[in-house]
Amino acid sequence: MRPFEYVRPAETEQAVAAVTADPRTSFLAGGTTQLDLMKDGVLDPQRLVDITRLPLKGIMHADSRVHVGALTTMEELAADPMLRERLPFVREALLLGASTQLRNMATIGGNLLQRARCRYFRDPTVAACNKRNPGSGCAAIHGIQRMHAILGTSDQCIALHASDVAVPFVALDVVVHVQGVDGPRAIPLTQFYREPGTTPHIENVLKHGELITEVEIPLLPEGVLSHYLKVRDRVSYEFALTSAGVALQMEGDIIREARIGLGGVGTVPWRAWSAEDVLRGATVSAESFQAAAEAALEGARTLPGTAFKVELAKRTLVRTLETVAGASS
Amino acid sequence: MKHVDTPTRPGEATSEIPDVEVTLNVNGDPYRMRLDSRVTLLDALRDHLGLTGAKKGCDQGACGACTVLVDGKRIVSCLALAAQYDGREITTLEGLTDDGEPHPLQKAFARHDAFQCGYCTPGQIMSAVSLQAEGRAGTDADICEFMSGNICRCGAYPNIRAAIRDVVSEANDASV
Amino acid sequence: MTTLEDPTRTVIGEGVDRVDAPLKTTGAAHYPNDYTYPGMVHAALVGSTIAAGRIRSIDASEAQRAPGVLTVITHLTAPQLERGPMTLLGPSPPAPMQDDRILHYGQHIAVVVADSPEQARHAASLVNVEYEPAEALLDIEDPRAEILENPWGLDSERGDVSAGFAQADVVVDERYTTPDNTNNPLGLFTSIASWHGDSVTVHDSTQWPHNVRTSIAQIFRIPESGVRVLAPFVGGGFGAGLRVWCHTILTAMAAREVKRPVKLVLTRPQMFTSVGHRPNSVQHIKIGATSSGDLTAIEHRAISSVAMEDDDYEPVAAGSAVAYECPNLLTHDRQARLNIPCPGSMRAPAEGQGNFALESAIDEVAHALGMDPLELRLRNYAEQHPVLGLPWSSKALRECYTLGAERFGWSRRTPAIGSMRDGDWLVGYGLAGVSYPFYQVPCQARASLRRDGSAYVTSAATDIGTGTYTVMTQLAAECLGLDLNRVRFDLGDSDMPYSPQAGGSGLTGALANAVHMACGNLVREFLDIVRDDDASPLRGAAAEEVTASGGRLHRTDAPDQGEAYTDILNRHGLEELSADGRSTPPDPQKIGMATAGAFGAKFVEVRIDPQLGLLRVARVVSAIDGGRILNEKTASSQITGGTVGGISQAMFEETATDAGTGRIANATFGDYLMPVNADIPDMEVIFCGGPDRATTVGTKGVGEVGLVGMAAAIGNAIHHATGRRLRSLPFTIDQLLL
């Protein structure tokens, strides 16, 4: 890790200004991604702006929405009683992520900005990584791919976005509030991330220096059930091979509304729009769930190491749909 | 306030990057230090304060051997810059004993042989202390899940659970 | 004197708490990286990023200029070093940084020393290297790889294998593979070297302090008496600490150059390339049996990977020669030289891989015959050592099978595939048998009794979590008739009497016999002192006539005729008496018995979610014959820990290597999976049999036997649940999607 200057401004505006002014200055929140990647030599800032003491913590409930300060930790958010009641799949996704120790450090804003789980990206001794060095190639495509994406990939990058909580978040149409030097703006999470395409080094729509200040989560309507299922080799403390976050609004055995996010498969937290379309108005049945799963994974592109994920992701989604529909009936 | 000298060699080329002034309140005592900004909380405790209870097992935030409590909550101190924890209350394994009397979990770990090489033990015990405070020590399923951030390569997991169960049931008995 | 069969004995065997528990639970146990010296500076290593070729140029100038840097040593500036000595385990690793050749990814090519670890780490990243890469051989089946045939002379052949297969009604002939695994003890391996002239003190993460002492002395051409190696606590080893790896040599080298104490802590990624690993294997196994279940022939051929210019003892197939009574058998081992970091022993080396193939294939035979796999194993039980033709010095494997089966409830198993369920989960029962090889080498210990009546017993052994401190304290207390708290056993210091490595499950047995003899000799010393002492009730007594108990010696047939150790020392004006003991492994031909290692039977219940491919180990019963168990608690922990290691081998561990560069693709704890708490069920351990007849104390090591058999037992249980036979480790979700 190169030497860096550490600063801790008192005001959000100061922090935003300091980072905006210098391309080699970065925000530091929980540190679980930032410091990890600095130790590995992937990130190399000259200055860190510690934002952990900015007044961006706390949870507020208003107008059927939960307003979460960006510096709220994962554990703090998971403990919010409203989540247990109205957003169980958000709570489940939070608690199935990382370990308690990491959840006590990691912030909600930081979670959304976590970097790709790709050992080729995370090791600067690997020369070919378009995310680290645009134009250098992608070693992962010719490497070992078990933990890589199959949706939203390009021939330049297959790195996975491994956030759990972002999966129900995209399904819920969460809104991200950011602060820049030019003022605040609000971005729907489904429009926040960018698939790699030909520019894998650009992961989201934030401008350098823009800071996430709040995450606004719409509550599910009363009576809507949800569930997050995470499939992995270990029982606990591992990134997902595949996961699904599902919320269903039922009327008898007719699905009125479906919200579906997928994890472990996308270069960005994956909203399964087409699966929702299949299910909207459909009757609960093995066939409709299977059709939704087929639709969700349509267009998946695999490599030898990720080929199994297509089937596993479908089954993960079907199981999650069964669980939610079963609990609703 | 205890001042801790960080060794520097006179006349050496030093970087233009300033050191940071940090005060860590560790196990009830404040320590004031000047540190290279890169020093993690774990290294500050171990290398600068000589508190080697917290261990370095991966330095990647993945094994839990460096678990300490900050303001009562467990974190992995290897992924924390010391500077970030300026002024915060930090508890390490060394701070668990009460006037020389071991914490019930320390005794239970010994009784149940809840370790072998002992390297992960400080982290396991700190996590277990936190687990109780979080109210997650009540069921086996919770103990399994919420102790899974602490790797034990020797494979003492069943005994770690037994030690925690033992302390929890003692505490329950005492409260009846 | 006190025999270990004395019915009044209370200390041995009992599950007393570890004597070092108060230290380990309070942070007061100091591991190598917990030490610091005044003026100590810090080293960091630079590793090669190619697997084969040459260093065209290495430019350390930028690193050298970085803040705090004292020196950067490369092959251009390193002193010429000899290779370390030949050891009991084979040659030492080649000396590091002696030329420009690169033989594997992660090879140490520079050492940076700086004031702080942060400075050293950063400066290491500033060393600029240009390589001239060559094509790396990385695939164990690459036809270009040099093959070593029968590298240890352990290949076996008996009877006529072809004829045996011709007689068989059922023949199973399959290919099994196991991947590279990495030991990954939790303690990052650390070396600290502090020189004073031509003497050096070394703290090291080692399982064998004397080996470090001998190596440092030979490599740096100094007398062994000038080298002191300390390892009172080690954060696990699992075999990684058996050799003196290059980082230890480089630390001593750097400290000598900068004339300051130097500390080097390997990073976790470096732990994957610097301190050995379990090599991958490809195994062909063929077993024939008659329809009544008599094995007619076994043929087991295995190949393992090994480094280009280093060695590893890994006879994967050899163990199959002693597992069953089978008239026709052939085992053959080979190694392929590759551009990989050198493999080394990892908990249950060779057996961990070979048993997976053998015990899975036995299950395949049982299935093909429609026979209960337990019955098949009992039917072909080796009553005598199948190679030596001698009776075993102990073998309670039959009892392990029967008691284990009873405890597990094996009779509840319904043989049809997929016939057992728990809700939506498929349930499978599987078992495996284990015959662990005997290993013991000479060992020494010293026992002293002091004027305050306390005993101090030492040997330069290590306690890597095995419980050595505790069981030797118990044993010495028993032999000397003292309370536990009057005995201190110390280890982990090369100035103490010679001890072999904590490895091969051989230390506890070898050391116990040495401690036993040292204590016996100490009693004799006391009797010598009072031989002509009219004031002593023990005057003229022979050791055989005397019992030690309650801090005193007395005549066995007249307990009131005796006196305290302290009385003897006081009357004779002595501060202390000491005696040495040593043990040598028995020779089977001399004792007319085949020296036995541990045996075991592993019973496993798995649950499988057939849609999602989820595999859970629900129950394990381990029935183990470990000879005399010195401490039921710590021995159980060894078996439990080994079993966890076996679950890990079966379900999680695989070190992945990138084609081309040879880079380890998952060299972090986030990517290299090992079980967490939630993966491991509560489990049962039962000990069978009694003391082994080949040695005085009769204990057989149990550090490794617990791991062996788990992969096969889990695989066999998966087959029982699903009908799917998995022949490639680890068993992951993608193999289990049904």
- The low-confidence runs of chain A, each spanning 5 or more residues with pLDDT under 50, are none
Helix content of chain B: 25-40%
Approximately how much helix is present in the residues of chain A?
25-40%
List SSEs of chain A in N-to-C order.
EHEHEEEHHHHHHEEEEEEEHHH
Global outline of chain B: globular
Please give the CATH architecture of the largest domain in chain B: Roll
Q: Which structural class best describes the helix and strand composition of chain A?
A: alpha+beta
As a percent range, the share of strand residues of chain A is: 15-25%
- What oligomerization state is this entry in? heterotrimer
| Lateral strand order in the biggest sheet of chain B | 1-3-2-6-4-5
Please report the first level of CATH classification, the CATH class of the domain at 225-328 in chain A. Answer: Alpha Beta
Work out the largest interface and the residue count of each chain: B-C, 66 and 68 residues
Order of helices and strands of chain B: EEEHEEEHHHH
Average pLDDT of chain B works out at: 92
Distance between the termini of chain A: 55 Å
CATH fold naming of the largest domain in chain B? Ubiquitin-like (UB roll)
CATH superfamily of the domain at 225-328 in chain A: CO dehydrogenase flavoprotein, C-terminal domain
- What is the CATH class of the largest domain in chain B? Alpha Beta
CATH superfamily of the largest domain in chain B: Beta-grasp domain
CATH architecture of the domain at 225-328 in chain A: 2-Layer Sandwich
Keyword list:
heterotrimer, B: 176 residues, alpha/beta, Ubiquitin-like (UB roll), DNA polymerase, domain 1, 6-stranded mixed β-sheet, C: 738 residues, alpha+beta, Aldehyde Oxidoreductase, domain 4, 7-stranded mixed β-sheet, 17 helices, 30 strands, 25% strand
